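Pasting as-is:
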Amino acid sequence: MKCPHCLESFHDFYEVIPVGNDSEGDWGVISRKCPSCDRVVLVLGSGKIGSIGGRYVLEFIKDERLIYPRAPSRVPLSKEVPDEFAKEYREACTVLSDSPKASAALSRRCLQRLLREKAKVNASSLANEIQEVLDSRSLPQYIAETIDDVRKIGKFAAYPIKSERPGEVVDVEPGEADWNLDVLEVLFNFYFVQPAIIKRKREILNFKLREADKKGMKKV
């Protein structure tokens, strides 16, 4: 399985702490420990609890809900991403497992703010703003296609409220909330991270050139 803390994969080994039963079956807290980051992963599961070698296990799992951490980790954001965007992105990540609808609403709203600030699109519906960015051809093709998938996966045509009021909590398609977060990560990298990296490299280059000039002058 993949550790929701550090995202490293490891062979699954767990134990179950029984907590009760109801019409859904037996309930237990599934406890795992990641060998990479040495952190505990707790999942509330239902099904049928059995015993193997004195250790409780779920013989079949009917339902699983991640309870610690509250949501799987994603790639940490660079410090170059402004707080106004980073906070909303992290909030969307935090609520993802509890409410994909809420997470998607937060990420759509963040996407709209990002396009308005960095791509300088005219204020309109999110669908129109995405189209304006695509028509401007200001983004690499792979990023443009990635943004356009927000409309396709989210079925904006069938759910215009997602475009007209991006922050509204409405039904989402499978994988939609995750994809929105992926798109934000790509855009953060394009608009904030890469320009900062290039700027630092240019500063280093200019420093080396100035030092080279000084040495040349001394020789003369």
